[in-house]
Amino acid sequence: MRSACLSLLLVTACCALPFRQSGFLDFMMEDDPGSGLPDGTPELSFPAERAGPKCPFRCQCHLRVIQCSDLGLKTVPDEIPDDTTLLDLQNNKITEIKEGDFKNLKGLHTLILVNNKITTIHPKAFTPLSKLQRLYLSKNMLKDVPANMPKSLQELRIHENEITKIKKATFQGMSHVIVMELGSNPLKGAGVEAGAFGELKRVSYIRIADTNITEIPKGLPGSLSELHLDGNKITKVTADTLKGLKNLAKLGLSYNAIISVENGSLANVPHLRELHLDNNQLTSVPRGLPDHKYIQVVYLHANKIAAVGTEDFCPPGFNTKKAMYSGISLFSNPVAYWDVQPVTFRCVFDRSAIQLGNYRKK
Ligand SMILES: *[C@@H]1O[C@H](CO)[C@@H](O)[C@H](O)[C@H]1NC(C)=O
Ligand SMILES: *[C@@H]1O[C@H](CO)[C@@H](O)[C@H](O)[C@H]1NC(C)=O
Fold first, then answer.
1. Ligand 1 centroid to 257 CA: how many Å?
2. Mean pLDDT, rounded, for 205-220
3. Contact by Cβ (8 Å): 288, 267
4. Which stretches of the chain are DSSP H helices?
């Protein structure tokens, strides 16, 4: 039931458009159906023992789902039943994953290790997990993405660790990955080697927010539908980094240091619907918006845009856009709102979709 529910969530979260990925894990982490007892309360009956199948001490075992969260565990417990499909070990104090920790767990689909103190993972620790689809390693102290991850993986979440570099070979052969979350790691400079995501032929969602990367990763796969790179130190958008991203629908680049969007960038992402470029250093509206057929949301607030022309957003004359804008934000820019001609927004769905606002002079 639980794993069916998770699969459903994954499908809803990953494959439908538009997706709302954020909050998925939060919801899952709060959804803890077995935790009726306050911490430390002794259980009065021992259903797992009575029924026969083993269950690690103090964990709760139900329908092949093993819940061992918030127990202060320093190591992965022994005696995990071989037929386990979901193993939840979040909020413990595990420091190391050893070679045999998951031996025999051939049916495991989901492994949750979020919020531990893991610094090392044995290179063969994941080898037995040939059916693993979801691996959650966020909030640990890993300095590298673990080696030899199961090729069956569909979702990898490893944000808030201490990873400084994503190497070209890191995700080799992981052709089933759909969701990749790498945010809040101390990636510096390029941070991600060119082509590091090249083998993720099905990936639809990549988030590398709040690191310190200075450029958009090169060689992103054409399957990508959402790319979230907010809160980095990216200084420019170049057309070649977006080349071939014909499925990209959402591009998040808020809170960077972008001074320019190269001509031709938008033409490389013909199905883009949302572009977030707020809180950057842009001095003009990016080129190519009037020719773009599908873009609907463009956030440009909190930049250094001093002028907005009547041809910046909409095609001249007859409206050739297939979708009207539903959101344009321009507030907190040096341009005075009374200097922007109303005709500028002739291809906007509704006047309320435009946020012009005021710019306060210091
Ligand atoms: C990014 O760099 C700043 C200093 O410029 C630092 O304070 C911050 O922790 C870095 N972010 C990460 C995720 O390492
Ligand atoms: C970009 O395009 C605009 C017009 O669309 C043109 O005025 C400008 O010179 C171009 N810039 C470059 C660097 O090609």
1. 14
2. 96
3. yes
4. 2-15, 24-30, 47-51
